[in-house]
Amino acid sequence: MSSPLKVESDPEELGFDPARLARIDDHFARYVDDGRLAGWHVVVARDGKVVHSSTAGRRDAEADLPVTDDTRWRLYSMTKPITSVAALMLWERGAFELTDPISRWLPEFAAPRVYVKGSAGKPLTEPATEPIRVWHLLTHTAGLTYGFHHAHPIDAMYRAAGFEWSAPRDRDLAGMVETWAGLPLVFQPGSEWNYSHATDVLGRLVEVVSGKSLDTFLAEEILEPLGMTSTGFVVDDAERLAQLYVQNPATGGFLTAEAAGMGALAREVLEPTWLGGGGGLVSTAADYHRFTRMLLGRGEVDGVRLLGSRTVDYMGRNHLPGGLDLEQVGRPLFAEMPFNGVGFGLGVAVVTDPVRYRTPTSVGEMSWGGAASTAFWVDPVERITAMFFTQLVPSSAHPIRTQLRGLVYQALVD
């Protein structure tokens, strides 16, 4: 079990005004008081030292169980940076080049087809003009998609194949990847950005290249070395697991996933049939704090080094075509905020222009969030890491991420 997250340093010594930090709790307490969220946990740190850690509400409102330091949260897409680090660790060892076609290890992608026009039932496709490369998986420029986007005929084909908020239970990760490889791409590889199952495919690549299952590789190479002992694909202590909620559009409140007809999504972490490197992990705030500290430490924390410092620097640069941002080159995004001034690196979003982003953060900030409204960021300039955990789908329900950034930076006064 991870150690509870306690304030480790006087906030004032690290440049924060304690009274201003308290505004974070005051603000988000109202989300619980008026029924928008069941509960939450927020953590702010500087130089790796926790300056603010607070909880509110219930991890399970129906059972009246409070949020605690060791509550386990479904990470969903906050899994992606962890899987991306796994791939980069293999790259550092010379296992592949970022420009290598993935068909070298995943032959099902040897001849991808690309959507041209038509309906989901009768699409017209053409051959891909170049192969899907490892680089494309890390940057979501492979042309893959998600069924929950509801923005393109290929999204509908994913839903018809059983992929929307959950996945077919009759196959493992290898079977999932074979299914996606048989569906058309949304665009030519490398030409655009589209949030997708690319990191799940990357997880399968890690398996084939390493010769280990994804859960074993992550445990041996990342989770155990970092002391992330409460992170994994399977929950065997369900009493610590936060309930999954879905926004009730009629009231602005929340329903349990079961009541909203999304019970399969809530139960996937109890008996998973596949290892989703794009969204399958469950973790605690204390565990994920270790991961963010590693990123802030340019690959190292407390003497444990996962990546070279230059690799993390490279991970945190904008790799999108033409140096454009997500608003310019991305398909419609599943998020509660615009992405003007935000590019995409190797597994993380990267701030390129805080002014266009309308957020007082720093150039080079790395971040991402999850479908259940979780979020994190790492600011290498101000040396800040911040995390927010709750369990409400969709993440676009409330402007939590923009509000949290504003509240954290207004408290910084050095």
From TrEMBL:
It comes from the Bacteria. Keywords: Hydrolase. Its EC number is 3.-.-.-. Signal peptide: none annotated. It is an enzyme of class 3 (hydrolase). GO terms for molecular function: hydrolase activity. Residues 24-406 form the Beta-lactamase-related domain. The keyword 4Fe-4S does not apply. It holds the Pfam family Beta-lactamase. This is Serine hydrolase domain-containing protein. It comes from Actinomycetospora rhizophila.
